[in-house]
Q: What sequence folds into this?
């Protein structure tokens, strides 16, 4: 399930077919994502064809990762991307020694999810995370049911 990182060629512009090939999705999927994710907005050339830059290709790959691998919904992926982009566009690389001061004066290191230098998850890790997510959903359902029973 885990694919190796996609090597994006060093080019200024990419046609929609090239982006589709790199991302492994069809053109209609990419066009749909453009309508759903405002951060994926390729320019159009004089002929009206979509022209993607490297950042657009990276965004398409990130959207695919969130939707297909991490199994986010469209709404969830939008929120996640907005949070990532709001966090400063290009996320900082955090070394183990670096830390940030919290408002109360204590030091903390930002979670690994805020960095882009995190190694890709293995199949086992992904399965474990999916299992954990499933168990958390079950717990949430139990808590919601208990809460309903209390309010009756």
A:
């Amino acid at each position: 399930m885990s694919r190796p990182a996609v090597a994006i060629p060093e080019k200024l512009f990419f046609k929609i077919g090239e982006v589709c090939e790199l991302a492994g999705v069809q053109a209609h999927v990419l066009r749909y994502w453009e309508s759903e994710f405002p951060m994926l907005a390729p320019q159009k050339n004089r002929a009206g064809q979509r022209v993607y830059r490297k950042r657009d290709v990276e965004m398409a790959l990130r959207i695919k990762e969130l939707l297909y691998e991490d199994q986010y919904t469209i709404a969830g992926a939008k929120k996640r991307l907005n949070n990532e982009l709001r966090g400063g566009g290009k996320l900082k690389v955090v070394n183990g020694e670096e830390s940030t001061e919290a408002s109360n004066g204590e030091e903390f290191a930002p979670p690994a999810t805020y960095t882009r230098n995190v190694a890709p998850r293995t199949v086992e890790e992904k399965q474990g995370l999916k299992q954990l997510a499933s168990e958390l959903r079950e717990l949430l359902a139990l808590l919601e049911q208990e809460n309903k029973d209390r309010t009756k």
User: Anything to note?
Assistant: The chain has three domains: 1-89, 93-119, 121-152. The helical segments are 16-23, 27-36, 54-69, 74-86, 123-151. Residues 89-118 have pLDDT under 50 and may be disordered.
